[in-house]
Amino acid sequence: MVEIFQLDQIRGVAERFWKKYGGKKVFAFYGEMGAGKTTFVHQLCELLGVKSAVTSPTFAIINEYGSDEGVIYHIDLYRLADEEEAMRAGVEDCIYSGNICMVEWPERIPSLLPEGSVRLRLTLQDGDTRSLTVEDN
Description:
Blueprint: E1 2-6, H1 10-21, E2 26-30, H2 37-47, E3 62-67, E4 70-76, H3 83-88, H4 91-95, E5 100-104, E6 118-126, E7 129-136
Parallel strand pairs: 2-5, 2-6, 4-5
Antiparallel strand pairs: 1-7, 3-4, 6-7
Helix pairs in contact: 1-2
């Protein structure tokens, strides 16, 4: 799946993405700072019925939301140095919990991501234009 979109079109992109990949549990969000990872996670959480505020868990590392689909873990690994630190923070437990997990900066934990994770790459094109490339392995 490849989409090029403006930020005001992100809800439709999220809907098409979820229609195609919604049966999966672990989603790995790649992209530079400001590419729209948290914004895309926010849209997905809204689609899934999360009522609480969806915020970046950069400092908390893991946010847990209740949704129509059950628990959703939103994980931001930006501040973590390596997989060992991620395991101490409880990231592995979340990823293998059977709940939906949306992981930002997954390059910090390459061997912890389960087979079958959906990998999303968000790229800033210019201004409000982004591209989304999805790999489902």
